C-alpha cells in the first residue's frame, strides 16, 4: 500500500507548480491550464483521504469538483474567445479595463 | 511493486506539470497537461478509485483538452510564443509560493498522523455500486445542482462566444 503522505506530498507538489503557473505566467491560456492542475491536485488529496478513512465522500467530492471544473473551463474559454475578438491580446496584464 | 509504480507515476506527473508551466508554446503546454492528467488518472487507479480514473480520462483528456486545443487553434498564439517567461516584479509571488510549499511539506511531515500506512480496506467488488448508491441517495440534491450548473455554463459559453448581432 502507498502511505498517505506520499499522496499528500504529490498533491502539494502539483499545487505549488500550478500556483506558480497562475502567479508567474502572463499568458491567459497557461493560467487556465494551471488552474486545471490546481483542481487536480486537490482531487488527489480528496481521493487519498477517502481511501485512508475508507469513506466514499472523498470520491463523491472529487466527482463534483470535476463537474464544476468542466463548467468553469467552458465559461472561461467563452470569455477568452470574446476577449480575443474584442481586444486581440492574450496577456493578463493587458486586460485591465475594469480597473477604475 | 505498488510503491514503485506510484513513484514512477508521481515523478512523471511532476515533470510534465513543470513542462506545462515552463513551456513557451501553449500547444506544448496543452500536450504536457494531457500527459499529466493521464498520470494522475493512473494514480487514481492506485488509490482505489477506478471510476474516478475513467471519469478523469473522459472529462479532462477527452473534453477539456480538446476545448483548449480548439481555442488555441482559434486564437493567434504566435505573439504569445515570443514573450519572455518571467517578467520582472514577480519575486514576491515566487517567495510566497516557496514559503507556502515549504509550510505545507513541513506540516505534513511534522505530524505523525500521516506516516502510518493506511488500514487495508477489504471491500468487495461492488465498490462502484456502493459509490453510486451513496451518490444518488445522500447526495442527490448536489448532483442535480451540479447538472443545472453545467447547463447554465453551456448556455453561458454559447452566449459569450457568439458574435454580437449587428
From TrEMBL, chain B:
The keyword ATP-binding does not apply. Keywords: Cell membrane, Membrane, NAD, Oxidoreductase, Quinone, Transmembrane, Transmembrane helix. One of its GO terms (cellular component) is plasma membrane. The keyword Lipid biosynthesis does not apply. Its EC number is 7.1.1.-. It is a multi-pass membrane protein. InterPro entries: NADH_UbQ/plastoQ_OxRdtase_su6, Nuo/plastoQ_OxRdtase_6_NuoJ. It catalyses: a quinone + NADH + 5 H(+)(in) = a quinol + NAD(+) + 4 H(+)(out). The chain crosses the membrane at residues 6-23, 30-51, 57-77, 89-110, 139-161. Pfam families: Oxidored_q3 (PF00499). One of its GO terms (molecular function) is NADH dehydrogenase (ubiquinone) activity. It is an enzyme of class 7 (translocase). It is found in: Cell membrane. PANTHER family: NADH-UBIQUINONE OXIDOREDUCTASE CHAIN 6. NDH-1 shuttles electrons from NADH, via FMN and iron-sulfur (Fe-S) centers, to quinones in the respiratory chain. Couples the redox reaction to proton translocation (for every two electrons transferred, four hydrogen ions are translocated across the cytoplasmic membrane), and thus conserves the redox energy in a proton gradient. Belongs to the complex I subunit 6 family. This is NADH-quinone oxidoreductase subunit J. It comes from Sinorhizobium medicae. The lineage of its organism: Bacteria, Pseudomonadati, Pseudomonadota, Alphaproteobacteria, Hyphomicrobiales.
Amino acid at each position: 500500500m502507498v502511505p498517505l503522505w506520499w499522496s499528500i506530498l504529490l498533491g502539494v507538489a502539483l499545487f505549488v507548480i500550478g500556483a506558480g503557473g497562475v502567479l508567474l505566467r502572463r499568458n491567459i491560456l497557461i493560467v487556465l491550464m494551471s488552474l486545471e492542475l490546481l483542481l487536480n491536485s486537490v482531487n488527489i488529496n480528496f481521493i487519498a483521504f477517502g481511501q485512508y478513512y475508507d469513506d466514499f465522500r472523498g470520491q463523491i467530492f472529487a466527482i463534483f469538483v470535476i463537474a464544476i471544473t468542466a463548467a468553469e473551463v467552458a465559461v472561461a474559454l467563452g470569455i477568452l474567445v470574446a476577449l480575443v475578438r474584442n481586444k486581440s491580446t492574450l496577456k493578463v496584464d493587458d486586460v485591465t479595463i475594469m480597473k477604475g | 511493486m505498488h510503491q514503485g509504480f506510484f513513484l514512477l507515476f508521481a515523478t512523471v506527473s511532476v515533470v510534465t506539470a513543470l513542462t506545462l508551466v515552463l513551456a513557451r508554446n501553449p500547444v506544448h503546454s496543452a500536450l504536457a497537461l494531457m500527459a499529466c492528467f493521464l498520470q494522475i488518472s493512473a494514480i487514481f487507479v492506485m488509490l482505489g478509485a477506478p471510476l474516478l480514473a475513467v471519469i478523469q480520462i473522459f472529462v479532462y483528456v477527452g473534453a477539456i483538452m480538446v476545448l483548449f486545443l480548439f481555442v488555441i487553434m482559434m486564437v493567434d498564439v504566435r505573439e504569445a510564443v515570443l514573450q519572455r517567461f518571467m517578467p520582472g516584479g514577480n519575486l514576491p509571488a515566487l517567495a510566497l509560493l516557496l514559503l507556502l510549499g515549504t509550510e505545507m511539506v513541513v506540516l505534513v511531515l511534522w505530524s505523525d498522523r500521516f506516516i502510518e500506512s493506511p488500514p487495508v480496506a477489504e471491500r468487495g467488488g461492488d465498490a462502484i455500486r456502493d459509490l453510486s448508491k451513496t451518490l444518488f441517495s445522500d447526495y442527490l440534491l448536489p448532483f442535480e445542482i451540479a447538472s443545472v450548473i453545467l447547463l447554465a455554463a453551456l448556455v453561458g459559453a454559447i452566449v459569450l462566444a457568439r458574435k454580437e448581432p449587428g
